[in-house]
Design brief:
Length: 276
């Protein structure tokens, strides 16, 4: 992989295992939108950026400093996914799921945003999740000007902690509003500290998250995987349940995926959601 800066963008050549559509449409994130095939604009860590593929190279419209500080880690570019795929190829079905999801990368998302996003995701579908998050950011985030357009950062915990449920009525999050406010109050009040959480074991961190109102196993594991990048976390939602029921024997030992259970989960989720 060769990384170079040219004309106010970063060019990444020789990169393998990075399919933009699969990465942004696999259910792990909600703030990336396609402008056209293989061109996406998104907001993360208070910055807006365009990323696109051209002639097998990836381009990111940012400086080298911003790339090193934010996007290199965010897109998990230092990880060897080809090696991981070989380890996860433990059955005929996993081979099929891996081939189908080839190119998915796990994004290193901001943990506070991940917590709120997956609280919103409960009993919800992706288009509506994205719309609720868009409304939340537009109403309470900070403006970001990028390429002549206005985007918004994800609102900080202190901002949401001051709100009442009625204040969130315009974003149409329903019963999830009280859980968002409770999470914001826990974070802004220091009850929940993500830096401390990241230093715990996966199980210890899960138990802390489960104490939050409205956070069950699925949301907690999504925060562990997508927000804290504990890549052995294995969130189980309706699609994963269907895949496990349809393609795996009840006696199957899922620890065979360790320490990459979360990456295996993404291949399974992406395949199940598009094929079952």
């Amino acid at each position: 992989m060769i990384i170079q800066e040219c004309e106010n963008k970063i060019q990444i050549s020789g990169i393998l295992d990075f399919d933009l559509t699969k990465t942004f449409e696999c259910g792990q994130c909600f703030r990336w939108n396609a402008e056209s095939a293989d061109i996406y604009v998104g907001v993360a860590f208070g910055r807006a950026v365009r990323i696109y593929k051209e002639n097998n190279d990836i381009y990111i419209t940012c400086s080298r400093t911003e790339f090193e500080d934010i996007w290199k880690g965010y897109f998990d570019l230092a990880r060897d996914y080809a090696k991981i795929r070989k380890q996860l190829d433990v059955s005929d079905f996993m081979n099929k799921a891996i081939q189908y999801g080839d190119g998915i990368r796990l994004l290193r998302q901001e943990p506070w945003e991940a917590l709120c996003s997956f609280i919103i995701s409960q009993n919800n579908h992706i288009p509506r999740i994205k719309e609720i998050i868009r409304l939340l950011c537009t109403a309470f985030g900070d403006k970001i000007m990028f390429d002549g357009n206005t985007y918004y950062s994800f609102p900080c915990a202190k901002t949401l902690a001051r709100l009442r449920e009625d204040d969130l009525a315009p974003i149409k999050s329903g019963y999830r509003a009280k859980y968002l406010i409770a999470a914001a109050q826990a974070v802004s009040g220091g009850v929940l500290d993500f830096e401390t959480l990241s230093g715990l074991s996966q199980n210890e961190a899960r138990q802390v998250l489960l104490k939050l109102p409205g956070v069950g196993n699925k949301v907690a594991d999504c925060v562990l995987l997508f927000g804290l990048h504990m890549i052995d976390a294995f969130p189980v939602d309706v699609w994963i349940k269907r895949a496990l029921s349809k393609y795996f024997d009840p006696s199957f030992d899922f620890t065979v995926f360790s320490p990459y259970g979360g990456i295996a989960q993404q291949y399974l989720f992406y395949y199940a959601r598009n094929n079952i």
